[in-house]
């Protein structure tokens, strides 16, 4: 042990661990696969060099002589001296044995203060899905704050703190200095005053950011001139022409195609959520996050409202600031540019943009007035809602699964289809209909495929789905004892499966019948759902395409049922390439056209804090990622289109629905296009749209 202490003090490697007093913090320092070097003066700080070696979990553990007490946050001065960012994992141990854990990215650069709140928290506690980017300057201090901390509700005393780098592939060097605890104000300050009067992030800088009404109007005037030049050059070759036919599908030379009403092949290049009300964000109770919030009177009253987004869903769980007064920053900026006629001007400008940028379709949740009769296809959503039964899967991101075995579901579907087809069944510009959105057919994880079957059996005895599943099992096994043997459970009577809360087994290799029975049920469930919607749609609108159910999490059984009843399988794909986000080999076997109904790439260098499910480093890489994805989609013989999510950036403080606050947009919250990204999109679209 003494040898290890000596080696650590000399800056040599020690494979086990060593303890030595830190003379500045008086804390003991325990090392594992870390070499301790000498002290270095960095500005006003004295920091000590620690070299983290390639290992599973090299760490530095700090233990004070007496527990740190009576504070709300733990802080330490440190510096990442590598030329790249380093991921640091923090484990804080309380005197009661409770723990708090956090993970932060330490950028290269000058010394900074790492701050860890001594209680569990996340950006959702502030009404957003992603917290402010770090580091941040607060009162002249460079701060890296852990905005997500998991574990104990709060720690009143800290026994020790372990700083580790998860599995480094090469040596990583950090300089670590004094640690202490303090009253907790940093977390609040990190969110204070983060949004300006235009809805922009106050602490960021990017080329499209504006600082005055005059600058906003000037930027839009310049773009109007560019759009006029584009129209004069005839950049509308991809626009549709009026014709008496209908969109349909065909397979030619081994490749699936959409066909436009005029008979031309049509690769659907779409954009989701092309709407003027996407800038709404709750302000009630967190007015302190906004620096210049317009008053709820005068002309700004039109962009002010109230709502309630509290829901029993995974997307809403734990989200604060989810009801009350909201303000629409995007629409307010449109008013600043075009005055009282802002909505008509926005529709005209948006239509010109989409055509000039090579798009030919309005995706889901869009303003149809932009498209209908103006050279763009559009889509509609069949939103099925009612008092029918449902099935909880445990995932339930947007809500529980509708129970298609409930007769009330069939009635609700009939009403929803009638409403969706009203006034458009004879419109040749309509591409087709989606049914619902991202239903919880499955859940993430290795056993996620089976959650709908397990959730069905877990349900109430009166559940129509549960009764249908039990009837299926009774037809197969006859005797409940045979089921118990096949599933490896102690069941001898069918009544044992009926109570609410029945814990169905997970499939395993020793009992293959479990997976077989679950798979059969998933097929029956999906078959009933898609058949019900398809038959209702054919009754109300025999002309237009049924574009499927906008799958996110999904099972092979659900996709196969969709292929039998839908004209097109729609899948929301969040991956770098289509083949990395869906099983294209299996889809080719189903021999059905596929529409990528959502894809997106985000970065954090244009204001909003989130980068979405597929982040890239910066704005330039967004354009590169778009081009690579679209080229791969257009090259696949089953894929007939791809729709970008979404038109405009989400609010910095989160959209009303679920606090999502990502940089997905072709345009920002000020309706100014992101020029470099749009240029890359235009080039990629031009290539993909060629037959």
Give a short synopsis of this structure.
This protein has 691 residues and is an alpha+beta fold.
Description:
With 691 residues, the protein is of the alpha+beta class. The chain folds into 3 domains: 2-182, Sandwich (Jelly Rolls), CATH 2.60.120.430; 223-279 and 343-444 and 517-688, Alpha-Beta Barrel (TIM Barrel), CATH 3.20.20.80; 459-508, no CATH class. It is 26% helix and 23% strand. The chain is built from 14 helices and 31 strands. The strands form 6 sheets. Strands 1, 2, 5, 6, 8, 9, 13 and 14 form an 8-stranded antiparallel β-sheet that branches. The protein has an 8-stranded parallel β-sheet with strand order 28-27-24-23-19-31-30-29. A 7-stranded mixed β-sheet has the order 3-4-15-7-10-12-11. A hairpin with a 5-residue loop joins strand 17 (255-259) and strand 18 (265-266). Helix 13 (619-635) runs parallel beside helix 14. The longest helix has 29 residues, at 512-540. The radius of gyration is 29 Å and the shape is globular. It starts with a helix and ends with a helix. The model is unreliable at 1-25 (pLDDT under 50).
Q: What's the CATH class label of the largest domain?
A: Alpha Beta
C-alpha termini separation: 73 Å
* Mean of pLDDT: 93
Overall 3D shape: globular
**Backbone CA Rg:** 29 Å
According to CATH, the homologous superfamily of the largest domain is Glycosidases
CATH architecture of the largest domain: Alpha-Beta Barrel
The CATH topology label of the largest domain is TIM Barrel
Helix-strand category: alpha+beta
Uncertain stretches of 5 or more adjacent residues = 1-25
Can you summarize the main beta sheet? Answer: 8 strands, antiparallel
Distinct helical segment count: 14
Give the domain tally: 3
Report the sheet-strand fraction: 15-25%
* Oligomer category: single chain
Tally of strands = 31
